Amino acid sequence: MLEFAHILYQIIIWLFILYSIAVFLIYGWIGLYAYGAVLRYKHENTFTDYNLIATNPNAPRFSIIAPAFNEGKTIVENVRSLLSIYYHNLEIIIVNDGSRDDSIDQLIVAYDLERVSFFIQGMIPTKEVRGIYRSKNPAFKKLLVVDKVNGGKADALNVGVNISSGEYIVCIDVDCVLEQDAVLKLAKPFLEQTNKRVIACGGVIRLANNCQIENGKVVQVNLPKSWLGRTQALEYIRAFVLGRMAWSRASGLILISGAFGAFDKEIVLACGGYDSKTVGEDMELVVRMRRYMEEHRLLYEVVNIPDPLCWTEVPETKEVLRKQRNRWMRGTMETLWKHRKLLFNPRYGRLGMVSMPYWFLFEFLGPLVEFTGYFIFLVFLILGIVNWPFFFALFALVVSSGILYSIYAVLIDLVGHQVYTKSKDLSKLIATAILEPFYFHPIVVKAGVRGAVDYFRNKHGWGEMTRQGFQQGMEGKSWGQQVRLQLHDALRNYVPMAMVFLLFYVLAVGVERWWYGYNFVQLASFPIGWNLFIDNLYLGFQFVAGGGLIYLLLSFLSRSFARGFAIVYFSFIVLMQFVLFLYFSESRNLLGADMYYYSAIEMKQILDASGMLSWTNIGLLISLILLIAIPLWGSSKWRTKNLYVGLILLILGVVTCFVPLKLLLGKSPSSEEFVENAERSKLRYFLYSNVSNYLEGHPEIASVLGQESTDLVGRDGDLPFLRGEDTKDILGPYFNQAPTAPNLVIIIVEGLGHAYSSPSGYIGCFTPFIDSLSQQSLYWPNNLSTSGRTFSVLPSLMGSLPFAIHGFLEQEVLPNHFNLFNVLKKNGFHTGFYYGGNSDFDFMKKFMAYSQVDTLVDQWAFASPYRKLPGNGGESWGYEDQAVFTKNLETQKVTSQPYLNVLLTLSTHNPFMINNAAHYELMFDRRVVQADLSLDNKKWARENKKQLVSVLNLDDALRAFFEAYKKRPDFKNTLFLITGDHAMPEVPLQSKIDRYHVPLLIYSPLLKSAHTFKNTVSHFDVTPSLLAYYRNNYQLHTPEQVTWIGRGLSEGPSNRSVGMAMMQSKNQLIDFVYGNYHLSDGHLYKLDAKLGEEPLSDAAIQEVVTHRFDAFKRANRIFYTRKEVIPDSVYAGYFEKAISKH
Amino acid sequence: MLNLVTLHELVLGIIVVLIFVLILIISVLIFSFFRYRSLQHRQSWATIIRQIITDAIVEGTEPLPQDTSFSLYLKIPSFRRYFLSTLVSAERKFTGKAREEVGRLFKVFNLEEEAWEKMRSKRDYLIAGGIQELTAMRVERALPQISDFLKHPQRQVYQEAQYAIVRFKGFEGLFFLDELQHPLSDWQQLRLLRSIEEVPDTHFERINVWLGSDNESVVVFTLRLIGQFQLLSYYPEVLTLLDHDVVMVRKHAVRTLQNLENKDTINQLLAGFANQCNQVQLEILKALKASKSKQTELFLQEQLWRHPDIGIKISAAEVLMALGGQSYLQGIVSSPETSSQLTQIVNHALQEKKC
């Protein structure tokens, strides 16, 4: 998990760096390209004589359209300014857009207007025109004033377009001050067109704030007084002189400012004029015009000229500025959304492949990416993972790049247009460039983000409006029709969320596959992607369909509640997808319902020790939730145009429930359990595990569903595991007779699998001491643990006890039973349990308390100088193995009283962090190089270095323990039993049996000779054999009636036994070994002499083994149901004591 | 990629780029400073040059060749270039004696070499600038070299060469139209037309070739030329162009016919009216308006009542109004049987006050 967090951290950093590089490159290109464009324009127009068209009656007609809304204070002066424009064939149309002030009256008086009949030829739909006025004074014959009902700027412009008689229209804001030669300069590109039609032309807009204006003309240019104004002056230079010139030269310009731009009227009319529903009507019109030209395969140009032709007032208060930028962002988003078809669409040439993607990636996403950057920085800051040198270097680079771009813009402006020529103004502009990133930029970024949020809100606050409309539409409808309409609307509303979910879900699956390839070398070569994808996609469709049905039902209660449900539902699924595959990646186990069988404290300890409960991961989790939930929330406001997609999704969901997944799944590339599990949907497993677990606990529901479990069958009154003690003493012949009963030390090594503790293991031997000891011991290489986790090792090994439902120790009250502790204690042994961690975990303490163990040592008994294992974020499982062994040596005094001590290690537990890691890593490296390992062994070893390093540490601790023990007088009269609780799932399992394949050895100085047993045995067999040994050789009194699952080490799970069941996890009783056959989750395998296994297809054998397994489960169920394993009388008879029944 | 670069290397990389950016900032600032200085110089030069030109025009005196400070300026190449461009700009503004004085300054200060140097350059804009300067200063010796630029691949250069040739040679300079492949923009056409002062009568064949050119912009230009110089003898050829494939040509043909109007023109325009597209029909109606021929009234009334296009109806009503058909139009308005659309159209033409 930490590794994943680290990679995620790197990915985030790299994404931002790549985005920054892209920004850097694009603005670098804009700067250079604009320079060329400005120079070219300057050179081409050095001696241009505009008189050529100024008074020429054959020059094309231009119509200036100026919408006005409540401009009464300045409108007369503004119109006077327009009337002074130098162009003969000109028409000036003032559109009074339903002003509530006296604008129209002032115009009538000032220009001697009279109302005239006017037939409006244009066909663009607009609000009603109240009247059209012309001046009676021939001096104002160019003027046409339109009075109309208020409909917004775009609507007013459309009225102007409808009325205009010019071949070209010039749309301006009425409060703009135009240069007198503005139309002349705009006209030139239109007149110069040859094979490419110029459809729109814009000029540079400059700031009128603080400029001296006389008679509608700018007579003295000054920079605005406020910093806000100056920054916008700088911004306008950047935008118009650099940005638009570069895009114009590259034929990629899609924005002609609404404040001043000229358009080919024929194309405007063909496109349907301005869109009055958008706030970004200027950009939208240009995009639509370009789209029209592209779709009709017509050659065209959109041109920008760098001459400053128009002067406008910009906001000098933050509030107005924010509103303006908010509007710009919404306008951009509306246009991008409306013309989304163009994005990356090669059919639209540069428009689709360059301009639109640029606007999407940089103009629209720019503020959002920057804002996300601030947020992520804050998260990193809180998590304390900010790399300050990196941060400051990048920050300085970003800021200085911005400053460079601004100063460069000032320079280009100086080269081209020389608007600000006073040295004082230039100095102020440069100072502004330096201050802007800290003062102005955050304001516009915030306003942009706010605009994006408002876009969703408004457009989809429009959702509310639609809903009202929908409700209104319900009036007069029958109940059935209302339901149909409601479902229809709700489904259309659900689809965008479902699509966003599927996108994220598939993305998560992609990340999962990538992560496996990145993290596990052995998976990188296996083609598991298809099965993983199909399995998850199947499930994804099922989730969509299931969620859709709930959504449709909830929508009858409240649409917003239903949306809330969908957002939470989908976010949770995607989140779980991440959590589950990361869990699998960390533990190599599939997470199922077994998680419920750990208490809250245990869970916390697991999470603490694994390092998952770190602030980093919590931060990641929150970020992930936001990353998923925000787009879902955004999409919750949308609707599809029709029902088809929704219906297809629902049908797919239903189909996937009935069409067997196996039909689509490819053959698994490997029989290795790890590979098989890797290509499974972790989420599907989790859900199925939970459902089956629930049904198991609720047989009444299972029976309703026709899933009555066979293990419910049993006869009341039976104690199925009770039998007479008849275990053979297999051990006695191998030992010399001691004068007194020998001490017994049982060492249970966490995660000690056969694969890496034996030279014959598929990874090779990484326990040189244990290996050497096994040569001097009674050694069972084919030994099996009884579970895939630690929870059952104590009851199985120490009591040969059944599992109950979720493990013997999970039972609320432990039923009376015999075990090695209480039987040996009854025979005078001192008993002890040593563990470096918290013995409450897996209810070990409860077991010790029940068995009245004399000495219980767990993490609370340790103090300095014992060392804890290093942990993630300071938390670890507990004390290192060296500490446990030393503590045992220290605690267990040499006495005449025999003793039984059980030591459980934990250094080899995930996350495999040990003290003195460097030393053991060196040892590991040396071993990989020097030891007699095959190439395959070495490959496996390197892939699992962390785990194997911890194994070497354990082995070394064990060696030290034995060396110390040898010095004690009681050593010669002690039996040492060493085994593993299960194999590490974190080390890839080659076959399903490998999970349980652990070594078992008994060493003692009393041993006559070493011997290796080839038969398969299990932990169930240990206690029966040990007690048989003590009973036969030292006349210890053991129970005559027992409930051992195992038949002793001589038998193992042979045909004579009832077979041997194994729990993979606390809710998975799916493995069973009987004779040489292994039944795992319904699949039969044949075991060989080394516990290797191959799939076997033999119905007869499968039936026998399944029958045995069912019998075992039935017996287990009866035991659990009765909560009694042996009769109280037998128990009491042995211990000669009263029985306290709970 | 994650493993290719360590964080330390990344930081180093960023710092290197940062240093590069800082160097660029300093460079841009220095360049801006020099650019500003240069602008300041230009402003002071502009004052000096303006004074020289004013003195030359007003007093007609020898402009102080012995002035030592001005002589020093003249040794600065950028000053000479600026001086030359100012003279060219001034040449546009003046006529007659004043213009001659400007030309004299050009010769006195031997600025011709600057222009030649520009024309010899490989940069398009410099070549175009050189052509402009030599043309403005009427250096006829440059004509052969300028003619060579007619085939230059860059638009800016060949357009300036076209303009220069016509400025020097008038109508004769239009020979390049014979083989012109590039379209002539409206802007270029207006420039050329303005530079032609007369069309000799001896070029019948040449104009006919242009009227039949595959380059439609050449045809349009020729029509404009015919219209501008009232070349009546080309009337039949222009009339045939009413059947040209290109709408723009037909529109200009109508305009030209209107310029060359004779007694048959109206009937010829009316005869072809029905076969033309709306744009050409509108052009014909404009011609009728200009002709003020009463014989078209019936035709116009027919169009007002019957034509399906509103634009044509409006135009027909406006022509009727221009031809004095106010009473007829008022009659239409006052008739209760007139449709509201037609009433509005006619009212539009009548431009009646509503209140």
UniProtKB/TrEMBL annotation, chain A:
InterPro entries: Alkaline_phosphatase_core_sf (IPR017850), Nucleotide-diphossugar_trans (IPR029044), Sulfatase_N (IPR000917). The chain crosses the membrane at residues 12-35, 358-385, 391-415, 494-516, 536-554, 566-585, 612-632, 644-665. One of its GO terms (molecular function) is glycosyltransferase activity. Keywords: Glycosyltransferase, Membrane, Transferase, Transmembrane, Transmembrane helix. Residues 742-1028 form the Sulfatase N-terminal domain. It holds the Pfam family Sulfatase. Belongs to the glycosyltransferase 2 family. This is Cellulose synthase/poly-beta-1,6-N-acetylglucosamine synthase-like glycosyltransferase.
From TrEMBL, chain B:
The keyword Membrane applies. InterPro entries: ARM-like, ARM-type_fold. The chain crosses the membrane at residues 12-34. The keyword Transmembrane applies. Keywords: Membrane, Transmembrane, Transmembrane helix. This is HEAT repeat protein. It comes from Sphingobacterium yanglingense.
